[in-house]
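Lab notebook, bench 4. Still working through the backlog of constructs that have no structural model yet. Next entry is a single chain of 146 residues. Request: give me the structure tokens for it.
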Amino acid sequence: MAKFVFELESILEIRNFEQKQAESELAKCLAEENRINENIQQLAIQYANSKAQVKNSANFDDIFTHNQYTKLLDYQKEVLLEELTQAKLETEKKRKIVAECMKKTTALEKMKEIKLAEYKQDVKTKQKKQQEELAALKAFDKNSNR
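Model written out:
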């Protein structure tokens, strides 16, 4: 009996490869989002530390320096928030690409399953037919030998 061959196997392999690539790109985007969020958290910690240092200070230079420093931190936060917005947009694009790749791959995998089930049924039908023919031959031989 011939071995099962899915005619679209090479396309399925390509689709699986594309899906893995898309998932890898999505992972990179998510990692970038995490990096930006960590930087934003670090700015918040720096802001809190600076505020705690100047809290009870009556020194004008300390207060002025803290004020300038917080302006710098606010600017850095705005830059990071803009980067985060861009990263989230890119992540969403990559999610859509992954979803589309998964859809294409799943469709081919289901088609392969259907074809395999049809193949197995066809094999069973042929085997049953062969068994019936063999039984008929044996019965014929018994009858002809009498």
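Notes after review: The chain has a mean pLDDT of 93. The helical segments are 9-54, 60-144. Flag for follow-up if needed.
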